[in-house]
Amino acid sequence: MHVSHLQLTDFRNYRTADVALERGANLFVGRNGQGKTNLVEAVGYLATVGSHRVSTDQALIRSGCESAVIRAKLTHEQRELLVEVQINRTGANRAQVNRAAIKPRELPRYAASVLFAPEDLALVRGEPSTRRRFVDGLLVQRSPRLSGVLSDYDRVLRQRNALLKSARASGLKAETLPTLEVWNDRLVELGAEIMKERIAVVAALGPRVRSAYQAVAGTDQEPALGVVLSVLADHPDSEDADGESGPLGDVSSSIDDLRAMFRAGLDRVRRAERDRGVTLCGPHRDDVLFTLNGLPAKGYASHGESWSFALSLRLASADLLRTESLLGDPVVILDDVFAELDSGRRARLAEAVLDYEQVLITAAVYDDVPKELTAHTVHVNAGEIVETEAADD
């Protein structure tokens, strides 16, 4: 799949933008703060229904405007689709495919992308919530119906937390609440499915991460990853600020076993939940552990190793999607990445992405980008597309 045309209206710092894109490499060049990242952020939004930079949509709408529009022509095997989404400051967002209305959460059925940005260093060094978002974003692209499952789980979690807080405030015991078991049943049903899918996608990423790490770093330091389940924790608290905890290891991916684990976990933390008025185990508190040579990458990996690991996670994601997605290759997006890499990693990264159908790159300095990725260059200045050019043969 590739994007052949991108149009923006009142998106970020663009009043309007209209840019034709090519198969292969497309480079957006401009000084920092001019709007390069906004262009690739828009492409990424179509595939993930979210931004890699902010947690809410409001920041995507140009100041003083009530809505923003992303419109793109997507091409896959001779089939062309016009995909549009209107992001509203108030009210629900709206989306269309070939002028027919769809739910915005269905957009990943039509667009696929994998975006790597400097913020991805937090995948290795940051909080568990960052790793959960990474895995869940890949889940939705791998199987778009899971967007609904994740949304339903969040809704049930909020309802259950509200009930627990009410019980704490009124001095009631959680086990005496007649509706708590109803919410437990729904939480377990949805949560077990999320855990099952996360375990599966992490298992599928494992060998791909190892291959990608060797390709990017030029060495094999035995990178590995595994799911940490909070429902298996002995205690609801952990060293992490958010309270995520749980053991790592081979866990059953049977949906019935996961349901049983979840119920046992809820039983184990019942008293603590009553005291604190919050749900203390479940997918919302799980983590993914990354290791290098058997040691946790967080805290042990050097800066360069952490960068290589983060890059490897994105490259592994792209390889997984190109293998499993009906859309074929995802659009690979490298947002301001090359300035952070040494010359060896730059060359190896370029080699790793060259065979994807489309690669979008942003850079402040043209010479930071390997020559083979500059085939189609777009210059950006102050929210305007000022010039496009093809590289000389």
Automatic annotation (TrEMBL):
This is DNA replication and repair protein RecF. It holds the Pfam family SMC_N. PANTHER family: DNA REPLICATION AND REPAIR PROTEIN RECF. The keyword Cell inner membrane does not apply. It comes from the Bacteria. It comes from Cnuibacter physcomitrellae. Belongs to the RecF family. The keyword ATP-binding applies.
